């Protein structure tokens, strides 16, 4: 990618926006009121806004390697807190993708140095679902299933956050698990049963009213 072109592209983008809506940037500068918090993978192929057809102002976005919600990650926890408490988003989406490099790396017996603790969260997901995953003979299918189970686990991690629990009770905040199929571009709703899991999670992770 030629970085000099980026500034030309930006000028064209501004012209394009203003030609269809002269007040476009004036409106954007008034503030944001997104409905959705999207937590996805940093993978350069999974461009959140583009694949959802979302416009600026519609989706609050956080991306990291393998779309993890780790409760001692100040970054993701701040993003969740800000979007739930201050922006009052109505939906939180965890979006993974098939053939995720982070998930693949966690499946391999390899020392990746500084990345080890980050990837360990994915190895833990493998451990929780060892029986199901080891029963899948096809390696690609096992890899795809771990991507889905990782999304599911991160959704459950979202349910463990105090502000999320309060927003679910008070204003019916919804949590969703999605996967993008890199091979077709298709966005798939995993339709995870959050209600059932929430009850189970609250037995141990209930953080009060
Ligand atoms: Co990825």
Written description of the protein model:
The chain has 209 residues and is an alpha/beta fold. Helices cover 52% and strands 14% of the residues. The protein has helices spanning 3-20, 24-28, 48-52, 74-86, 101-107, 116-128, 130-134, 139-159, 162-171, 194-205; strands spanning 36-41, 59-64, 91-97, 174-180, 187-189. The protein has a 5-stranded mixed sheet with strand order 2-1-3-4-5. Helix 5 (101-107) packs across helix 6. The N and C termini lie far apart (50 Å). The model has no long low-confidence stretch (mean pLDDT 95). Bound molecules: cobalt (II) ion. Cobalt (II) ion binds at residues 41, 43, 66, 97, 100-102.
What is the name of the CATH architecture of the largest domain?
A: 3-Layer(aba) Sandwich
Poorly predicted spans: none
The DSSP helix count reads 10
**Main sheet record:** 5 strands, mixed
Give the CA-based shape.
globular
Q: What portion of residues belong to β-strands?
A: 5-15%
Helix and strand element order: HHEHEHEHHHHHEEH
- Indicate the structural class: alpha/beta
Mean pLDDT, all residues: 95
What is the name of the CATH class of the largest domain? Alpha Beta
CATH topology of the largest domain: Beta-carbonic Anhydrase, Chain A
Strands in their spatial order, largest beta sheet: 2-1-3-4-5
Write the layout of secondary structure elements.
Layout: H1 3-20, H2 24-28, E1 36-41, H3 48-52, E2 59-64, H4 74-86, E3 91-97, H5 101-107, H6 116-128, H7 130-134, H8 139-159, H9 162-171, E4 174-180, E5 187-189, H10 194-205
Helix pairs in contact: 5-6
Bound molecules: cobalt (II) ion.
């Amino acid at each position: 990618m030629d970085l000099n072109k980026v500034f030309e592209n930006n000028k064209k983008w501004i012209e394009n926006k203003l030609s269809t809506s002269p007040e476009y940037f004036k409106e954007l500068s008034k503030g944001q009121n997104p409905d959705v918090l999207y937590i996805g993978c940093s993978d350069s192929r999974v461009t959140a806004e583009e694949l959802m057809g979302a416009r600026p102002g519609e989706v609050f976005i956080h991306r990291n390697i393998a779309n993890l919600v780790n409760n001692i990650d100040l970054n993701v926890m701040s993003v969740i807190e800000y979007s739930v408490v201050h922006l009052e988003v109505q939906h939180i989406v965890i979006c993974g993708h098939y053939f995720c490099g982070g998930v693949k790396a966690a499946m391999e017996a390899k020392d990746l140095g500084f990345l080890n603790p980050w990837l360990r969260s994915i190895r833990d997901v493998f451990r929780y679902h060892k029986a199901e995953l080891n029963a899948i003979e096809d390696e690609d299918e096992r890899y795809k299933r771990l991507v889905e189970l990782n999304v599911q686990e991160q959704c459950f991690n979202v349910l463990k956050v105090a502000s999320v629990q309060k927003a679910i009770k008070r204003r019916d905040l919804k949590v969703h698990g999605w996967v993008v199929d890199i091979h077709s571009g298709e966005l798939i709703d995993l339709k995870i049963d959050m209600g059932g899991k929430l009850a189970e999670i609250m037995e141990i992770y209930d953080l009060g009213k």
